[in-house]
Amino acid sequence: MMCLLCRSHNVRLLLKPSASLSKTLQGQYFISSERFGLHDAIYQCAACSFAFIPRLLVDKHALDAFYENAPLDIQYLRDSFGRKKTARRILGAIDSFAPPINPHKRILDIGCNAGLFLREAELAGFEGYGVDLSRNAVLFAQKHCGLRSVVRGGGNAIAQFPDNFFSVITAFDVLEHVYDPFSVAALVDRKLRKNGLFVFTAPLLDSPSAKIMGPYWHGFLPSHLSYFTRDAIARFIARNGWQLVMARYYLRFFSLASIIRRMVQKNDLWLPSFFNITVGAHAFDEIEVYARKQKS
């Protein structure tokens, strides 16, 4: 078996399967899923520390259908207050790193889902574009968020944009889900302008939380196919010729209402508007990366 990142054959079994990926792909996908500790066999490269589910176990057609048919995640939408605040924090960092670009400041959000981040990006002055496999999510983004530039698709949809078109491309909680994160990275590199930013997040396999929780870590989810460490992230960036601008822990904001609903497991629980107050939280086990394209 060969490592997908560095091509080394020094790959070993990290975790035995606790769930079947093929059965997972027969079910429904929800962003807010909390089925922690469930995964197929995970292997790790001894050379670069990148970990992955062997692609021989992945039916790509079933994987695409899994996301294409995903229903709207009501729990995800109910916490729009927290997600929008998370978006504004990231957009603030983007604004501080991205060079002023005229006459267009275009942003592409890969895996944009219902378009909550893109809506905030447009309010911040960006010309927003988005791609997502989910029919229901794309329809919601178009109809309820007014994002007509959101289209359904994956790599095929990204490929349709002109090269050197975007000043910023984002992918939040995406790379661990896709069949080939390195093909996605190659597309990102083509579509970014010189000095453009690629901003992405990913769970950290070598984080203290992951080490303490072991096989029960919440980063081990049935739909995760790839797992990055800090070293693997550095190699991923170097492989594409990008410059690392900043890497920090991914701070998410959640409304108190969302936290309470999760605790009592009632998505439709009515709560006064006071509970829409947001709080920041993270387990120091997910990284937020800003990388700059250097070549034209």
UniProtKB/TrEMBL annotation:
InterPro entries: SAM-dependent_MTases_sf. It comes from the Bacteria. CDD domains: AdoMet_MTases. Pfam families: Methyltransf_23. This is Methyltransferase type 11 domain-containing protein. It comes from Candidatus Giovannonibacteria bacterium RIFCSPHIGHO2_02_FULL_46_20.
